[in-house]
Amino acid sequence: MSAAPPARGLSPRSYFSIVALATLAGWCAFSTAGADFARAAAEQLHLATPIVAAPHSFYSERVAPVFREYCVACHGRARHKGALRLDTLAQAMRSGRHGPAIVPGKAEASEVYRRLLLPTNDPQHMPPEGRSEPGEIELTLLRLWLEDGASGTKTAAAFPDAPRPPPRVVFPALDPRKIAAARAPLAAAMARLQDEYPVVLDYVSRGSPDIRVNGSLQERDFGDDDLAKFAPLAGGITWMDLSGTAVTDASAPLLASMAKLRALRLGGSGITDATARALLGVRSLRALAVDGTRISPEALARLRARGVRVHAGDSPELEGDAAN
Amino acid sequence: MPQTEANATRLWDLPTRLFHWLLVSLVLAAWLTARYGAMAWHMRCGAMLLSLAAFRLAWGVFGSTTARFASFVRGPRALAAYLRALWRGAPPHVAGHNPAGGLMVLALLALLCAQVATGLAANDDLHANGPLALVIGKIWSDRMTRLHSLIFDLLAACAWAHVVAIGYYGLVLRDNLVRPMLTGRRDGLPPPQPPLRFVHPAWALLAWAAALAGAMLLFRGR
Fold first, then answer.
1. Whose CB has fewer CB within 10 Å in chain B, the N or C terminal residue?
2. Phi, psi at residue B213, to the nearest 5°?
3. Using one digit for the tens of pLDDT, what is the confidence trace for A75-121?
4. Phi, psi for residue B99 in degrees, rounded to 5
5. Contact (CB<8Å) B124/A9
6. CA geometry: angle at A288 spanning A287 and A293, to 5°?
């Protein structure tokens, strides 16, 4: 081996300065992180306008949720297929490897929209096969927003033709302890009677202490003696179906004592006007079905005058009354 | 002694040089095809890179002197001594890879093998799956895909470091290392002792053909 001649070219300092600049330029040009850095630097130097979506803009409230639902799993911060990110407005406006993802004012020229419209068997169709597809409403929202210029500040007022958002249904969280506490006064009687009448007796819903009784399941095998056993639960019963049972006016006092009873079916049972008179005292009663009984029109009229909806035939409304 | 092509010392055999430049071309092609979504071509590049990696590993054991790992893999002391000389601007000429270059060869080869291996199991969440992607299941395939992306960043960083190093030799030390990798010969180098041994290229062709057959078998249908 022999030693190389002394260096005669660029100085190491000059050379590595050039290398550092070239490395930085390459990183900014070819990497996602570098591109983000370059944009942030440009915005800091006021060479580029920051793109920010207003909190209550049409984009934030209607368009961004569509991207979150159908796109961000593959085009977000953690994963960005095709170097496209749709998790923020700034990224959506600037990122994307296969052409401009968003062309303000032109929906069909915007890649994010064009690919949604492709046939599902097209390899470029988005979302990919097997993933949930946006519906007509979401596509309309996206199209309107793009054609209007892909603004991050305009509110819903600027989009009068936009489909209305679906109503937000919020189910209150169930607190098992509160439910148990509400059910506690009648819990022991409830448990005992459920053992004897497993199908007939239950709570109205899993979060409610209200009780429903469906004696009609036992038809003529369910009579006054059976109903009498439910007396301990009288204060909690809100819905009762005794249609087709053998219940008679003998149960009228018990029925009159049910202070929370809202809906009652007695069609085809053995009751008469005596029960109708007793029910006038149940202030909570909203609906009553008495088809096929011997209650007189005058008794029915009195009940109606007190504000009870009386049905002579089938009464599907009773189901809803129990839930209210 | 006048420096002429006739006086230049033969260093790199044809298989090694072809391997080097094919590797550069195919890695670039693999990157471009992935970047622009041409996944069928991307996998063809991957199959070729697999065959090249397998060939180079074999050639590093059985090939010409300067291609063999045993001729350029040096310990930390030799590496440190070489780097000190390089820093002073007077690194000794080496017939073949110098200690720093030898380390770069190993690093690049290891990353190449890792990149090909993870690529075999990667997927693009659309229609392109490596030959082993469905075998190992989606969760592991996704992990391999992330690794495949990460390893490429490391590979690109090492390749850039390699280019920077070659540039340093060329622009600072005025020692052109690119030309020998093109022509196979290097000026200003006394004949190595003991003389370098060159294996006939036909053996290289045989080794590469076998590697390519294996790669094609693995990628059949893709």
1. N
2. -60, -45
3. 998 888 877 899 999 889 888 766 568 999 999 889 899 999 999 88
4. -55, -40
5. no
6. 170
Q: What is the mean pLDDT of residues B76-89?
A: 90
**Neighboring chain A residues of B175 at a CB cutoff of 8 Å:** 4
Tell me what pLDDT residue A121 has: 84
- Residue B185, token pair as written in the block: 């010969």
Q: What CA–CA distance (Å, rounded) separates A221 from A216? A: 9
On whether the CB atoms of residues A267 and A241 are closer than 8 A, the answer is no
Residue of B nearest to A129 (CA): B126
- Using CA atoms, how far residue A323 sits from A205, A208, A234, A318, in Å, is 8, 10, 18, 9
Res. A18 pLDDT band, cuts 50 70 90: very high
> With b meaning 16 or more CB within 10 Å and e meaning fewer, what string describes B27-50?
bebbbebbeebebeebbbbbbbbb
Q: Which helix (H) or strand (E) holds A282?
A: none
Percent of chain A scoring above 70 in pLDDT: 92
pLDDT of residue A313: 57
**ipTM > 0.95, yes or no:** no
Q: Using an 8 Å CB-CB cutoff, list residues of chain A that contact chain B.
A: 1-12, 15, 19, 23, 26, 31, 74, 81-82, 97-98, 123, 128
Report the DSSP pairing between strands B185-186 and A211-214: unpaired
Taking alpha carbons only, the member of B62, B42, B19 closest to residue B198 is B62
Cis peptide bond upstream of A163, omega within 30 = no
Min Cα separation A62/chain B (Å): 27
Residues of B with CB under 8 A from a CB of A: 35-37, 85, 89-95, 124-127, 153, 160, 164, 167-168, 170-175, 188-190
Largest CA distance in chain B: 64
Q: Give, as one character, the DSSP assignment of residue B98.
A: -
Question: What does pTM read for this prediction?
Answer: 0.64
Alpha carbons B81 and B60: distance in angstroms, whole number: 24
Going across the sheet that includes A287-289, the strands are A201-203, A211-214, A237-241, A263-265, A287-289, A309-311
C-alpha–C-alpha distance, residues B128 and A189, integer Å:
64
- Degrees, nearest 5: CA angle A124-B148-B206: 100
**Which strand (E) or helix (H) includes residue A308?**
none
Output the DSSP codes for A260-274. Answer: T--EEE-TTSB--HH
CA distances from A174 to A170, A207, B84 (A): 12, 6, 72
Give the closest-approach CA distance of B155 to chain A in angstroms. 14
Paired tokens of A281: 């005292």
Burial pattern A97-111, b for ≥16 Cβ within 10 A else e, equals: eeeebbbbeebeebb
SS percent in chain A: helix, strand, coil, step 5? 45, 10, 50
Helix runs in A126-251, H state only? 136-147, 176-196, 224-228
